[in-house]
Amino acid sequence: MADPGTTARRVDFRGGGFAPQSRRWVGLVVFVLLIAFAEWGTRTGFISALTLPKPSDVLETFRQLYETGLLWKHLIPSLSRLAVGAALGASVGIGVGVLIGLFSYIRAGLVPLIAAIFPIPKIALLPLFVIWFGIDEGSKYALIAFGTFTPTVVATYGAVDNVDRSLIRMGQSFGLSWRSIVLKIVLPGAMPGILSGLRISLAIAIILLVAAEMLGAEYGIGAYILEAGALYDLERLFAGVVILSLLGVLVSAAISMIERQLLGWRT
Predict the structure, then answer these.
(1) Residue 71: other Cβ atoms inside 10 A
(2) pLDDT in tens, 52-105
(3) What is residue 148's predicted lDDT score, i.e. its pLDDT?
(4) Which one, of 200, 212, 188, 206, lies nearest residue 153 by Cα?
(5) pLDDT value for 85
(6) 91: burial class by Cβ within 10 Å (0-12, 13-18, 19+)?
(7) Over the chain, what is the mean pLDDT?
(8) Would you say 215 and 130 are in contact if contact means Cβ atoms under 8 Å apart?
(9) In this structure, how many other beta carbons lie within 10 angstroms of the beta carbon of residue 85?
(10) 122, 147 in Cβ contact below 8 A?
(11) Which domains does the chain have, with CATH numbers?
């Protein structure tokens, strides 16, 4: 029994573990400082104009792209190629990865094959895809899909393997069916690893998008960067790079939103 003379003291909740705290303003401050430093350096001559353009000039290039309509002429084809190729590669990769994680015969048959093709630089296969699918959209879709497929498979079956086996045994002891265990234990437990793998896979997809558009594409961010680089037009070149960076940020934000929706049970 507590001493009547003592006062109750509030104890803070300590069950949050290592849950990350939202500090979005920090990233914005770092970004603004870097841009300000680059603007100062290029204006004062501390940074050579031959190595880095003024951020204000790059912004002016963006304005011209928008006003002339070239921004959408390059951006829309790139987004469609990325969406189709990445959706095909990621969906098939997740499906194959789950099958590898659940079935021993499929694991025995496919893991050596995945291990053999995973280290191959996908950009080196672009000429082969052009021969198979033509120089038009088919080869671009195939390259992005194949480049997204292999890392997604590896991340998915690794995530399935890392699901806590005690949870599976608990489900079996309660008489859950195989289907219920997969849907209610295995897939939710593997989802963090699958989404982490998707972050990497989609970043690879953006890289392959640029490579594919540099070969036989009239419009697209990759074609725009290739043309700007050939003319050594740094403002246009950096404008294309910034577009790719923003595209990566948007993809990462989309994955984060999906994580908040599907992984709220972790908090």
Answers:
(1) 17
(2) 888 888 888 888 888 888 889 889 999 999 999 999 999 999 999 999 999 989
(3) 94
(4) 200
(5) 93
(6) middle
(7) 85
(8) yes
(9) 25
(10) yes
(11) 56-262 (1.10.3720.10)
User: Is the pLDDT assigned to residue 201 strictly greater than 90?
Assistant: yes
pLDDT for 239 beyond 60: yes
Of the candidates 86, 92, 262, the one whose C-alpha atom is nearest the C-alpha of residue 188 is 262
d(CA 6, CA 263): 42
The closest of 217, 255, 202 to 86, measured between CA atoms, is 202
The answer to whether residues 209 and 265 touch, using CB atoms and an 8 Å cutoff, is: no
Task: Give the confidence band of 150 by pLDDT, cuts at 50, 70, 90.
Answer: very high
User: CA–CA separation, 256 vs 262, rounded Å?
Assistant: 10
- Give Cβ neighbours of residue 207 (< 8 Å, ≥ 6 apart): 147
C-alpha–C-alpha distance, residues 225 and 236, integer Å: 7
DSSP assignment of 141-210 equals HHHHHHHHHHHHHHHHHHHHHTS-HHHHHHHHHTT--HHHHIIIIIHHHHHHHHHHHHHHHHHHHHHHHH
- The pLDDT tens digits for 107-126 are 999 999 999 998 888 888 88
Reference 130, options 121, 139, 140, 143; nearest CA is 139
